[in-house]
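User: tokens in, sequence out, please.
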């Protein structure tokens, strides 16, 4: 069996209607599979005006808006018409991208039809309750995730640190790596544009601290703004540049009255915005990889990040940036102040990061996942099954 024999069915709660790192990775995977001669069919909620064009055939799944986050939807069933479509497509492997209701239904269907099913892990969902005052729910969420992932033939994490966490959490006995790639033509130090910065009112000699991502509380906006407040009280010269949009923008703007908000950027514009910063500050602990961290490194920026899954596999502490205990605003402030005051240090860390980012290419990382698909299909056909999990932790 080779890649041209693969018939992959991808199930995603958000394939292209809101742009994020996870669905862009899935679209790049679908594009790579199609270029290699495999068949791909995607099952996901859809909208009339998606954020970007989908790669591969996209089949609509019924969905409802998520309460409080209506821009996102979750599929609640695989109706008969979709089951007939899947049956007619004749997939030989399912890939489930999210542990929501649609994902559970897809895993159940794969088990019923005796097809191999894998899951990719894109977000640390168990950490989300703490940002909405419901941290007591984390053990419940972990138990639900464990039940979901253990029903899969294999699961794939985007970083070594996340893979080890999944093993420690006993999520599955077969934990692989599907890391993320970088578009080196877009994210490159040559994209730096001082004229663009000046148009935003940023002086050439002021070090710029960047935030890039959706403006939602689970990205650590509270830690970011508290740290910047400490930096201002220390009278460290700096300017904050925020790139992104989201429901928490008004709150974030009030917490950062002196920051420049550049709004949503994509493609070459995003590459220009990141390269025009002087350092990236990423206090989030919810990412399993952290695409923006890699993009900043490729643009020769030092990265100050929370010592959490994802960042731990990308940032080398003291070499390409700093890894700080999550929530430690004073230590985050120390690291940012150091890079703001020492241009040579931030240039050295940026150069080291740019060199480290060179090993991440999309085709290379996607081929590793394709190789795993082929292994899992073969093992499933030979009757390979994971052993039953012990009821004792």
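Assistant: Sequence out:
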């Amino acid at each position: 069996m080779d890649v041209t024999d693969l018939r992959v069915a991808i199930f995603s709660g958000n394939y292209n209607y809101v742009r994020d790192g996870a669905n862009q990775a899935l679209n790049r995977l679908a594009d790579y599979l199609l270029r290699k001669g495999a068949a791909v069919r995607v099952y996901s909620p859809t909208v009339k005006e998606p954020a970007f064009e989908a790669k591969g055939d996209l089949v609509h799944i019924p969905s409802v808006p998520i309460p409080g986050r209506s821009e996102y939807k979750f599929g609640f069933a695989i109706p008969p018409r979709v089951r007939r479509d899947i049956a007619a497509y004749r997939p030989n492997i399912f890939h489930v991208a999210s542990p929501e209701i649609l994902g559970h239904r897809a895993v159940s269907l794969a088990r019923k039809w005796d097809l191999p099913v894998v899951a990719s892990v894109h977000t640390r969902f168990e950490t989300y309750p703490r940002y909405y005052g419901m941290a007591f729910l984390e053990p419940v969420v972990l138990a639900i995730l464990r039940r979901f992932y253990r029903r899969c033939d294999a699961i794939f994490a985007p970083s070594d640190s996340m893979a080890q966490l999944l093993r420690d959490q006993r999520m599955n006995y077969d934990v692989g790596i599907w890391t993320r790639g970088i578009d080196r033509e877009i994210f490159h130090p040559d994209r730096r544009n001082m004229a663009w910065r000046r148009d935003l009112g940023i002086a050439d000699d002021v070090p710029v601290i960047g935030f890039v991502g959706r403006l939602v509380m689970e990205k650590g906006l509270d830690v970011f703004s508290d740290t910047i407040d400490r930096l201002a009280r220390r009278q460290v010269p700096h300017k904050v540049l925020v790139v992104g949009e989201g429901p928490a923008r008004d709150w974030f703007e009030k917490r950062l009255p002196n920051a420049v908000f550049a709004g949503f950027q994509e493609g070459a514009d995003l590459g220009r915005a990141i390269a025009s910063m002087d350092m990236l500050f990423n206090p989030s602990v919810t990412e399993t990889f952290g695409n923006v961290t890699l993009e900043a490194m490729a643009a020769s920026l030092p990265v100050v990040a929370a010592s959490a899954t994802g960042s731990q596999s990308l940032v080398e502490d003291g070499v390409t940036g700093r890894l700080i205990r999550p929530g430690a605003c004073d230590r985050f402030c120390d690291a940012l102040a150091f890079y703001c005051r020492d241009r040579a240090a931030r240039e050295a860390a940026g150069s080291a990061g740019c060199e480290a980012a060179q090993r991440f290419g999309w085709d290379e990382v996607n081929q590793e996942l394709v190789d795993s698909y082929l292994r899992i299909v073969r093992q499933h056909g030979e009757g390979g099954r994971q052993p039953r999990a012990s009821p004792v932790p």
